[in-house]
Specification:
By secondary structure, the protein is an alpha/beta fold. The chain folds into two domains: 2-161, 3-Layer(aba) Sandwich (Rossmann fold); 173-337, Rossmann fold (3-Layer(aba) Sandwich), CATH 3.40.50. The protein has 16 helices and 13 strands. The protein has helices at 14-25, 45-51, 65-79, 92-99, 114-120, 123-130, 141-149, 151-154, 173-184, 202-214, 230-240, 256-261, 276-283, 296-299, 316-327, 331-337; strands spanning 2-7, 31-36, 55-58, 83-86, 105-110, 135-138, 158-161, 188-193, 219-224, 246-250, 264-267, 288-291, 306-309. It has a seven-stranded parallel β-sheet, with helices on both faces. A six-stranded parallel β-sheet has the order 10-9-8-11-12-13, sandwiched between helices.
Amino acid sequence: MKVLVVIGCLARGGSERQLVNIVKHSRSNIDFQVVNWDGDENDPYVPVLQELGVNIYHSDQGASLIRKVKFIRRLISLQSFNAVFSFSYYLNFPCYLATRGLSAKLIGSLRCSFNDILKSENHFKLWLNFYPVKTIVVNSLVSQQEVEQKANWFGSHRFKYLPNRINVPADIENSIKARLKSFENKTISSLSIGRCDDNKRIDYIIIAIKNLADKGYTIKHTHLGKGDNLQSLIDLTIKLGIDKCFIFKGEVNDITPYLHNANVFVHAALNEGSPNVVKEAQAYGLPTVSSNCGDASFIINEGATGFIINQEHFGSEMLAIKLEKILTLSKDCYENMMR
């Protein structure tokens, strides 16, 4: 079976990691090939997928929508693909156009909150990316519930829940011991992972760390990821005088050592589907403070493995309050939060 996956880009994001996991864990008789819609051959996940034997086609970044659709349509015809999987919500309609009249089955995606899309996009664009696509994969429980509540909007559409898959560590006991030691010594390290953009609200984390530093806490924060806002965020840490304790590492090939070594994980996104990094932090036994985005409330056991902040109360002040709750736990309570 031949499947053509069309994805927005192959940068270091949650969708890209999920695509790799799908390729790794699917049946061996499925031949996955990928169209990199907006990216290029320099995208970091290109070699990762190529090592798995995946052919990657790069559409012309400067090309019009119609030219890109025609490019995909030619690929489908020449390579006789059995299915086309739109891996990014905004590509559902272009993939519909590319497959219209052909035998290849179209599968669409919803990888973020449906209600968030409803708030931010005009209804005609939303209709284009949903209505013509007869099968849509949803990766979050929140989105699944949202589309079920709007079932009358979609008629016979079939939404299939496919949860994100993560790599679960074999053993975290050594990590727990190391965290307990640093916790006792009050040498706390916190961690966040994500693109430096408006949605991830890394600025809230920076101000929260500043608030804790002003209270006398010794805490070193590491952020993994880059993006359009990176330099302005670095400038903010300098302005607040915390550039020595708030470190930007950029993109890294392996987040595992950082998950093992941190004492607490922080996630400040406004909108998400099923946040991989929150799942990964919890899998590594890492106490987590997160905004109530996407499936976060399904992943974190409130008060037991971390804290959720509802969006109406969310901000740097509440982040600092919840982080301080973890920092002031007894050793036994902190250990319980990791198990």
